[in-house]
Amino acid sequence: MSAELFQLLASAEYLGELYADVPPLPGACDLFYVHIDEREDSVTLGFDTRSFPVNPPAEWEGKGFNAFEFYLVFTDVDDLRVTGWGAPEARAIDLTVLDGGLFEVALGSAESGVTFRASAVRLAKTRAYLAWPST
């Protein structure tokens, strides 16, 4: 996970409040979901982490949750390229904020992966759950 993606997640409209402005470290989030929706020109990325929020909502407290997932939806996607996909590509995530507020996303490498540009990104969903085995 890139430093710019980490900064984005630290902001209040993303994960900042849940994590007291310090979201999970780059190596602590696993990309487990990629959905390309050509009807809405969007790409949704789902991340999973065992770094549980320090400020969970009241409805999560006392339930023994130890895992957290969140989904980012990139909209107005342009210049989408898919050259391969697998476990190695899911571990290499880079986000760059370009001039004009555009987002450039690269999953994997130039030889194998997914790249695109988007004009906006939003946090679409969060979910806490109990993962097994508990660590």
Topology of this protein?
Blueprint: H1 3-10, E1 29-37, E2 42-49, E3 67-75, E4 78-82, H2 87-91, E5 93-97, E6 103-108, E7 113-118, E8 120-129
Antiparallel strand pairs: 1-2, 2-3, 3-8, 4-7, 5-6, 6-7
Give me some keywords for this one.
135 residues, mainly beta, 4-stranded antiparallel beta sheet, 8 strands, 10% helix
Structural class: mainly beta
Spatial shape: globular
Strand order of the largest sheet: 1-2-3-8
- Fraction of helical residues: under 10%
Number of strands: 8
Topology pattern, helix = H, strand = E: HEEEEHEEEE
Distance between the termini: 23 Å
The DSSP helix count reads: 2
**Residue windows where pLDDT falls under 50 for at least 5 positions:** none
Report the radius of gyration as a whole number of Å. 15 Å
Could you describe the largest sheet, including whether it forms a barrel? 4 strands, antiparallel
Strand content: 35-45%
Average of pLDDT = 92
Instruction: Give the tally of structural domains.
Output: 1
Short overview:
The chain has 135 residues and is mainly β.
Detailed description of the structure:
The protein is mainly beta. It has one domain (about 5-130). The protein has two helices and eight strands; from the N terminus they run H-E-E-E-E-H-E-E-E-E. It has helices at about 5-10, 85-90; strands spanning about 30-35, 40-50, 65-75, 80, 95, 105-110, 115-120, 120-130. The strands form two sheets. A four-stranded antiparallel β-sheet has the order 1-2-3-8, with no helix packed on it. It has a four-stranded antiparallel β-sheet with strand order 4-7-6-5. A hairpin with a 4-residue loop joins strand 1 (about 30-35) and strand 2 (about 40-50). It is globular and about 45 Å long. The two termini are about 25 Å apart.
